[in-house]
Design goal:
Blueprint: H1 4-15, H2 19-26, E1 27-35, E2 41-42, H3 44-56, E3 60-72, E4 75-85, E5 91-103, E6 106-113
Parallel strand pairs: 1-6
Antiparallel strand pairs: 1-2, 3-4, 4-5, 5-6
Helix pairs in contact: 1-2, 2-3
Length: about 120
């Protein structure tokens, strides 16, 4: 079960824009992430590479947590709003729920639930 301090430190890394650092520090080597109901991406190194690719595609990416993270045993739920700004200055917004499973102070699995149509608005 993660401590509240660890969950808050993870969220603060994201809100500071250190997405890659958050993965490197808080995910287990065999962590898996799921985008909605898609097949998982497994392995911290693959997750870091994917995140670097996403960040390289945009001029700016911002994350804002909406309300507190809810912690129950090894499960954590957080509501996020992400803003992605491209080279032309167009910003797209994505609101999602992240459902996480932790082993102690490390993330082993994270599932993202969102409506992909938001990115086309």
């Amino acid at each position: 079960m993660p401590s509240r301090d660890v969950v808050e430190a993870f969220a603060q890394r994201l809100e500071a824009g250190d997405f890659v650092g958050a993965i490197e520090q808080f995910y287990t080597p065999d962590a898996a992430t799921y985008e909605n109901n898609a097949a998982p991406m497994v392995g911290r190194d693959k997750l870091v590479a994917k995140e670097r690719g996403v960040l390289a595609a945009f001029e700016e990416v911002k994350a804002v947590r909406v309300g507190p993270s809810l912690i129950e045993g090894d499960n954590v739920a957080s509501r996020w709003i992400f803003s992605f700004t491209n080279a032309e200055g167009v910003t797209r917004r994505l609101e999602e729920i992240a459902w996480q499973t932790w082993q102690g102070d490390k993330l082993i699995e994270e599932r993202f639930f969102y409506d992909p149509k938001q990115l086309g608005q």
